[in-house]
Design a protein that fits this description.
The protein is α/β, with parallel strands linked by helices. It is built from eleven helices and 17 strands. The strands form three sheets. It has a nine-stranded mixed beta sheet with strand order 16-15-14-13-7-12-11-8-17. A six-stranded parallel beta sheet has the order 3-2-1-4-5-6, with helices on both faces. A two-stranded antiparallel sheet has the order 9-10. Helix 1 links the parallel strand 1 and strand 2. The protein is globular, with a radius of gyration of 21 Å. InterPro entries: Gfo/Idh/MocA-like_OxRdtase_N, Gfo/Idh/MocA_oxidrdct_glycsds, GFO_IDH_MocA-like_dom, NAD(P)-bd_dom_sf.
Length: 365
């Protein structure tokens, strides 16, 4: 079995908590280098996770390191430039979300990947989740009938509130980042992953906390001026005819027991319990109205409904999917065209807010 040489750039909290601890569980991947613009951080992460080499810029990484796949886990404003350099250098790529800040940026990345003949997969990872894939199978089988509405709630109290950080989180509240790009991208990806491309978008948005206090990590107690960007969004997506969706997102909920997503059909409902578990046996509940089968009520998937191979997803598996796509010459599970459509929605939302109207979208996937 070939082991693909992987490099990771961006040694922040998501790399520390999500990717670096578990990349070793992907048998086809060999992590050969980490990279960060802060030398001490790159060096410390290399030592902590037993990575043989570390670098301090994408240019140095590309010049000096022999690798085949780049994982880009840098901050949001840096994604496009780094992605373009990697793709033009002929590297296969997984990028954290959002992969770019405009439709034009994402289109440029897609075209660069095609020109270089490399595979490019784009976060968020939701459409590879076991529970969402199982829900899509139930929908495809007609279990809950025709989909009428999807309601998604993806919020938290802000990156300064619940995540332990060694770096200053102020940048999350500055132009080029913000709640829409950090959190809205999740709900929009999940919703469009279920329903497909939206036709138009509307939105209401507010600033819920103009001054925020860091509650954990190195900067505990520091105050952040957070009055430049909205942090509380209610987004509506129009699918024409009888179908629509509502996406609630932002840095406006300290916690919630509301479902992360609910899918309403003419014959039933699928709800995703908000417990952080992506195992279908734990996270899904299904309401069925099936009089022909004598069923009218809530059910949970049983063990025999879900193969064991579909109950062990973790985020590093996006790298495994990318490797399999390369080896099998098939499409990746997280196509950048889907990411571009989500960016289209996010870039159109300011117009929807300003005009208080439903604004047409122009991309598909």
């Amino acid at each position: 079995m070939k082991k693909w040489k992987v490099a990771l750039i961006g040694c922040g909290s998501i790399a520390d908590n999500t990717y670096l601890p578990r990349i070793g569980e992907i048998p086809e991947a060999d992590l050969v280098a980490v990279c960060d613009i802060i030398p001490e951080r790159a060096k410390n992460y290399a030592e902590k996770f037993h990575v043989p080499a570390w670098y301090t810029s994408i240019d140095e990484l590309l010049e000096k390191c022999d690798f085949e796949i780049l994982m880009n886990t840098t901050s949001i404003p840096a994604h496009h430039e780094i992605n373009m350099k990697a793709l033009r250098a002929g590297k296969h790529l997984y990028s954290q979300k959002p992969v770019g800040l405009t439709v034009e940026e994402v289109t440029e990345q897609i075209e660069a990947a095609k020109a270089a003949g490399v595979k490019y997969t784009a976060s968020p990872i939701h459409m590879l989740r076991d529970d969402i894939r199982f829900a899509k199978k139930l929908i495809a089988d007609g279990c809950i009938g025709e989909i009428m509405k999807v309601h998604t709630n993806v919020c938290h109290g802000g990156p300064e509130y619940f995540q332990y950080r060694t770096a200053d989180p102020t940048w999350f509240h500055r132009p080029g980042s913000g709640a829409l790009y950090d959190m809205g991208v999740h709900g929009l990806t999940m919703t469009t992953g279920i329903l497909g491309p939206a036709k138009a978008v509307g939105c209401m948005a507010k600033i819920s906390e103009p001054v925020r206090t860091v509650r954990t990590g190195t900067f505990d107690g520091m105050q952040i001026q957070a009055d430049q960007l909205y942090d509380n969004y209610i987004i509506t997506l129009d699918y024409g005819e009888r179908t629509m969706a509502v996406v609630e997102s932002g840095f406006c909920q300290k916690d919630s027991r509301a479902p992360q997503m609910e899918i309403f059909g003419t014959k039933g409902t699928i709800t995703f319990v908000n417990n952080g578990n992506m195992n279908p046996l734990d996270s899904l509940e299904v309401y069925l109205d099936a009089p022909e089968r004598g069923i009218r009520g809530w059910l949970k998937p049983m063990e025999w409904d879900v193969p064991a191979s579909e109950m062990n997803f973790f985020q590093c598996k996006v790298v495994q999917d990318l490797i399999h796509a390369i080896e099998e010459d098939r499409p990746v599970g997280l196509p950048p065209e889907h990411a571009r459509h989500v960016v289209d929605i996010m870039c159109t939302i300011p117009e929807a807010i300003k005009t208080k109207s439903i604004v047409p979208l122009h991309t598909t996937f």
